[in-house]
Amino acid sequence: MNPCMRCGACCALFRVSFDCHETDNFRGGVVPFHLVFALNGTRSAMKGTEKRPIRCAALIGIIGMSVHCAIYDRRPTTCRQFLSAGENNTFNPLCDRARATYGLMPLSNF
């Protein structure tokens, strides 16, 4: 099982910002506009990631137990590019940091 399906820590630690043209109110955009807020004229971010405690509005479930993204197929580029630690044999210290914040073991190989 993909460890992200139990984790969700990254969705509850980092602001998810991206180009505003990724929202579905622009031609070719897919991210649901009702789940974002404007940062400025060119950047948007997922609701829930603008204040503490952070929790993306699209995150469903209990962190560290069972989670999923309500808009997985329509998630922003920022989320698509974020790899879990160890995915594709890569090291991602941000993933491990998010997991540690929620008391979860790192995924990186030591």
Keywords:
110 residues; alpha+beta; 3-stranded antiparallel beta sheet; two-stranded antiparallel ribbon; 2 helices; 13% helix
Number of helices: 2
The radius of gyration over CA amounts to: 14 Å
Strand content: 15-25%
Biggest sheet descriptor: 3 strands, antiparallel
State the total count of DSSP E strands: 5
Order of helices and strands: EEEEEHH
What does this structure look like?
Strands 1-3-2 form a 3-stranded antiparallel sheet, with no helix packed on it. The longest helix has 9 residues, at 93-101. The protein has 2 helices and 5 strands. 13% of the residues lie in helices and 16% in strands. A hairpin with a 4-residue loop joins strand 2 (36-38) and strand 3 (43-46). It has one domain (3-101). The protein is globular, with a radius of gyration of 14 Å. By secondary structure, it is an alpha+beta fold. It comes from Desulfosarcina alkanivorans. This is Zinc/iron-chelating domain-containing protein.
Short description:
This protein is 13% helix and 16% strand. The protein has 110 residues and is an alpha+beta fold. It has a 3-stranded antiparallel β-sheet, with no helix packed on it. Strands 4-5 form a two-stranded antiparallel sheet.
Task: Present the secondary structure layout.
Blueprint: E1 17-19, E2 36-38, E3 43-46, E4 59-62, E5 66-69, H1 77-81, H2 93-101
Antiparallel strand pairs: 1-3, 2-3, 4-5
